[in-house]
């Protein structure tokens, strides 16, 4: 690890790519978690410099490899299109640079397997940017389940929808491995994995759109003992991430389990009795808890958890099996 992460100094983050993803999510979280947005790398020098100035990143570098080789950066966030995740994550891992890769880790299962092989072989730290398992909302839900608030969890109903209006958006391109299932359907899949583990069956259907992608997808994953996920995702209606966990004696509703903001609630509705609503006392950018953890790991203050080598293959396998139904 570079010197910036030692001795209690702040972790210096580098952003590979100038995509909009980092602007509303990563950058506020890096600052809230006590890190430094140290550098951003892009292919267009003028655009990269503009990105750095507009978003308060200290330095702009030309070319992704230059950032991977930069000794003044401690961790990298891969913010490229899905089709480029494997190549640049592998390059970073081979160089010994800890990586947080935007989800999904890659767009296809074979590439995920390649990336995870390199992560295992090199021992370089790699996280996939599903940050909600680190957040207070998930800790609260797991506490409710441990207390038997709704009995045995049997079914999860979860969706992620938002509207894409520009045809040139990278999510609309099959060549860039976009599409609703990869971009946002992966969230319900990862949510169910958190509670149910490995899937045993998969089915889905889709509505085609864009440049050869699924613009809407719906389906189900089956798990042991008849447990199941019912999922819906798409890119042509207003933002909606409502999810419901249904147990033998009640249910838990989450207004936004994936990127909760101020006012997002967790509601427990027992089969008998009044509902109980929980709202966190404070709100922070949704990436903050994950970034705080990564910073602590790199500073030698915490053991690493929720690494991609532990979680990402099953997510990629489920997405692969769902898409195989089309």
Describe the structure.
It is built from 9 helices and 15 strands. It has 326 residues and is α/β, with parallel strands linked by helices. It has 2 domains: 3-131 and 289-306, NAD(P)-binding Rossmann-like Domain (Rossmann fold), CATH 3.40.50.720; 132-283, Dihydrodipicolinate Reductase, domain 2. Strands 7, 8, 9, 10, 11, 12, 13, 14 and 15 form a 9-stranded mixed sheet that branches. Helix 1 (26-32) packs across helix 8 (288-298), helix 4 packs parallel to helix 5 (109-122) and helix 5 runs antiparallel to helix 9. The protein is globular, with a radius of gyration of 20 Å. It starts with 11 loop residues before the first strand and ends with a helix. The relative contact order is 0.16.
Shape: globular
CATH top level assignment of the largest domain: Alpha Beta
Domains (count): 2
CATH homologous superfamily title of the largest domain: Dihydrodipicolinate Reductase, domain 2
Major pleated sheet: 9 strands, mixed
Q: Report the CATH topology name of the largest domain.
A: Dihydrodipicolinate Reductase, domain 2
CATH architectural group of the largest domain:
2-Layer Sandwich
Report the uncertain regions: none
Secondary-structure element series: EHEHEHEHEHEHEHEEEEEEEEHH
Q: Estimate what percentage of residues fall within beta strands.
A: 25-35%
If you compute it from the alpha carbons, what radius of gyration comes out, rounded to the nearest whole angstrom?
20 Å
Distance between the first and last residues' Cα: 44 Å
Strand elements, count: 15
Helix percent band: 25-40%
The averaged pLDDT comes out at 95
Quickly count the helices.
9
Given the helix and strand composition, which structural class is it? alpha/beta
